[in-house]
Structures are given as structure tokens and as C-alpha cells.
Fold this protein.
Amino acid sequence: MTDLLMVLSLGGIFGVGGFLTYKMYDDHRAKKPVVST
């Protein structure tokens, strides 16, 4: 149970971090103004 929670929390952190990194990279590559929502 504890292992499952730890894996899920780590996965969520890495998932969000990876998504934000990809979004920033994509915005930078497209050379368009960043619109934060």
C-alpha cells in the first residue's frame, strides 16, 4: 500500500514535470508568445 502510494506520487511528479518541460520546449520551438492559463 505504501509502495503503491509512493510510486503514484513519484509518477505524478515526474509526469507533471515532463509535461511542463515538453510544453515549454514546444512553445520555445514554435517561437510564439507563451499564454499561461
Notes: DSSP finds one helix and no strands in the chain. The longest helix spans residues 2-30. Residues 1 and 28 are 40 Å apart (CA to CA).
